[in-house]
Structures are given as C-alpha cells and as structure tokens.
Amino acid sequence: MGFSVLLIAIEGKSPEAVHNEYDVEPTEEYEEIAESPVTGMTLQNGQYLLYDSDGIIPENDLLARLSKNVSLTLCQVNETVMYSTVHAWKNGIEVWSVFHDANQGIDHLETTGNVPDLLDRIREKQTSLQNECEDVCVDFIFDIPVELFVACGGIRYDEDPENAGPEPWQILNRVTKTTKKRKWWWPFG
Prior knowledge:
Order of helices and strands: EHEEEHEEEEHHE
Helix content: 10-25%
Number of helices: 4
Radius of gyration: 18 Å
Number of domains: 1
Strand content: 25-35%
Structural class: alpha+beta
Largest sheet: 9 strands, antiparallel
Distance between the termini: 48 Å
C-alpha cells in the first residue's frame, strides 16, 4: 500500500498554538514511530512538526491561519499513486510550491512562486538518477518535493528524526468544533 501522509513544519509558533489552530489536543501518550493518525514533535531546529496520516487534508484557510506571522512548510506524499508536493506559506500566504504526479508522467514536475535555489541541485540529482535507472517502475522525481522539504528543515516522512529519543511522537487527538473545550466567561466555570 505505501505511505500516504502530510507533514507540516511550523517555525515560530508554540506547539500549544499549533494544536489549537489545527484542532488537535495533546495526549499524555508518546510513540516511537508516528503510527497514530496525528502526532507531533519539536524538531532539533526548533520547528514544530505535525505528522498527519488520517487522510484529512487541511483547507487553505487553515494553512493561512497556521502560517499567520510565521512560516510553515508542508509536504504531502501518497506512495500508492506516486504523488508528492511541498508548499511554503508565510504570513498567511502561499509563497511557492513544487508538485509531482507520476500519473501525468514519470518526469512530471510543476512549480509555482519563487521556489528556493535548493530546488535546482535536488532536481539535477534526482533527474540524473532517473535517467540512469533502467527500471521503469522506479520514480526518483517523486523525491524532489520530499528532499526540498528536508532541505527546508523538515524530515523525510519515511525515516526516523535524528537524535529524537526513544518515543518522540506525541499522540494528538482530533477535536471537532462540537467537542472542543469551551472557555467559560464565568470565572468559576
């Protein structure tokens, strides 16, 4: 089947603020591998990372809210259909993206906005690997958005974070609008 995940790395916002805006609540449970539907951890570079495998793709208004006054980088992969994308948001606006869809061709790659210069080096390496490969079933272009996400401070979706400890992933539970804890106006509630 393969991975189908969404990673969101947020720089400059506390985990508590991210949880509130992403409509998740932290539990007291941690796991070695991000296997729960939604988990989170603080990376060594200080970015907070959400690892979301529950299939709910955030709308642009949520990403705009999450990136208000900060920057975030989002990486989505679906190995089943060989789809990968990376997006950067800053101050509520999407500033660039890189997108690969193998269904549009093994060499398919689209960009929007002013992508980082790092993309050229990554694209050159992965294209070279693709051209040298004799196995038509291997898709090295798929890794271009993934590697760009890593170069921007994130992690690979299919590897353990470096020096993260034995159980770095905090399990987060989705909170619906109807079950979200209310803040009472009454000081004794």
